[in-house]
């Protein structure tokens, strides 16, 4: 997928309605527009720094409008050989918003800290993704009546085994080296080495992708932190593959009940709190996305976004989680068996002339 295709999505796929609703309810100030994102030309690279640390570097529409034209300029600049994107403050790479960014030139995302929602879209589709011991990855959208957008229907079912289905339905948080083990990050580097890594990348002379990969590989090989530390991959991966291999949410729930382990019981509790509609939408999204191209997935997700904006659960989820914060959403329908195939089909139907175009 080329840059032109990607950026065409900025006005359509990301659903600015959703971004505006969330940002409004989070009361995220827009008055410091000039400093929300830092765009610098350093060494051989263009460097994007998401600069809203008080808000976990969540994306605003203003930030998108600044990043887009600068990326286009760097794309055409023969002296710019790679793009580096990072978050300020040390706590989060990017915890929200709705944007997918990619680039024809090598693209390095330093996902140090919280990476959710739009932060996933800004990083996971790029060629190089660097995690640290502070990385925290999650796709928690089923808890607010939505689904894992920003291309989630493409990359999640392509993770090993049924891990992506598990992450999508439960919103489970992967931490540290597990973000690399899962394939979400391509490299793992100790956070204290990130500055040195960035400086070495910036100092490269007319680098090709292989040169950039070589630097990242050397830092990855040097990292010994948390090498043996894994919660998911050592203890639960077999359960995940077994329980989440079903084609219906109801069967996944039954599989977890039959397993009966503390881990399975905990996932049952989590799933029971999610929007029933979102759970069914998400499972179908991933099942269909597993055999679609990225463009086909984005078309599908655009349809889903429009339907969710017109429905009940997304607005109720935002209210319960982000506004009133009572954590007690009243989903409609309230039960899985009330979400009919007809209901589900309506979310996936073509929008005709209003469909996403590439």
Automatic annotation (TrEMBL):
Pathway: Amino-acid degradation; L-valine degradation. Belongs to the enoyl-CoA hydratase/isomerase family. It is an enzyme of class 3 (hydrolase). Hydrolyzes 3-hydroxyisobutyryl-CoA (HIBYL-CoA), a saline catabolite. Has high activity toward isobutyryl-CoA. Could be an isobutyryl-CoA dehydrogenase that functions in valine catabolism. Also hydrolyzes 3-hydroxypropanoyl-CoA. Residues 102-348 form the Enoyl-CoA hydratase/isomerase domain. One of its GO terms (molecular function) is 3-hydroxyisobutyryl-CoA hydrolase activity. One of its GO terms (cellular component) is mitochondrion. One of its GO terms (biological process) is L-valine catabolic process. Its EC number is 3.1.2.4. It is found in: Mitochondrion. It catalyses: 3-hydroxy-2-methylpropanoyl-CoA + H2O = 3-hydroxy-2-methylpropanoate + CoA + H(+). This is 3-hydroxyisobutyryl-CoA hydrolase. PANTHER family: 3-HYDROXYISOBUTYRYL-COA HYDROLASE, MITOCHONDRIAL, 3-HYDROXYISOBUTYRYL-COA HYDROLASE-RELATED. The keyword Hydrolase applies. It comes from Cricetulus griseus (Chinese hamster). Its main location: mitochondrion. Pfam families: ECH_2. The keyword Hydrolase applies. Keywords: Branched-chain amino acid catabolism, Hydrolase, Mitochondrion.
């Amino acid at each position: 997928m080329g840059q032109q295709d990607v950026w065409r999505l900025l006005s359509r796929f990301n659903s600015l309605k959703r971004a505006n609703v969330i940002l409004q309810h989070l009361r995220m100030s827009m008055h410091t527009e000039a400093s929300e994102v830092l765009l610098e030309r350093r060494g051989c690279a263009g460097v994007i720094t998401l600069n809203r640390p008080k808000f976990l570097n969540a994306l605003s529409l203003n930030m998108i409008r600044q990043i887009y034209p600068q990326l286009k300029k760097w794309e055409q600049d023969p002296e710019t050989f790679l793009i580096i994107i990072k978050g300020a403050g040390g706590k989060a790479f990017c915890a929200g918003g709705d944007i997918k960014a990619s680039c024809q030139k090598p693209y390095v995302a330093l996902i140090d800290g919280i990476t959710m929602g739009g932060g996933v879209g800004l990083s996971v589709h790029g060629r190089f993704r660097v995690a640290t011991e502070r990385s925290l990855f999650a796709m928690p959208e089923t808890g607010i009546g939505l689904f894992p957008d920003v291309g989630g229907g493409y990359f999640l079912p392509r993770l090993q085994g049924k891990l992506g289905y598990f992450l999508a339905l439960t919103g489970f948080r992967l931490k540290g080296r597990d973000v690399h083990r899962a394939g979400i990050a391509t490299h793992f580097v100790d956070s204290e080495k990130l500055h040195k890594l960035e400086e070495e990348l910036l100092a490269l002379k007319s680098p090709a992708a292989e040169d950039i990969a070589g630097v990242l590989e050397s830092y990855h090989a040097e990292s010994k932190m948390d090498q043996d530390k894994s919660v998911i991959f050592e203890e639960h991966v077999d359960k995940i593959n077994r329980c989440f291999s079903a084609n219906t949410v109801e069967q996944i729930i039954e599989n977890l009940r039959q397993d009966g382990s503390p881990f399975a019981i905990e996932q049952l509790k989590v799933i029971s709190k999610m929007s029933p509609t979102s759970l069914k939408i998400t499972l179908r999204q991933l099942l269909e996305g597993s055999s679609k191209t990225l463009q086909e997935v984005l078309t599908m997700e655009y349809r889903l976004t429009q339907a969710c904006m017109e429905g009940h659960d997304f607005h109720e989820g935002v209210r319960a989680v982000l506004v009133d914060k009572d954590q007690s959403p009243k989903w409609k329908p309230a039960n899985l068996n009330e979400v009919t195939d007809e209901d589900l089909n309506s979310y996936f139907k073509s929008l005709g002339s209003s469909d996403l175009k590439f």
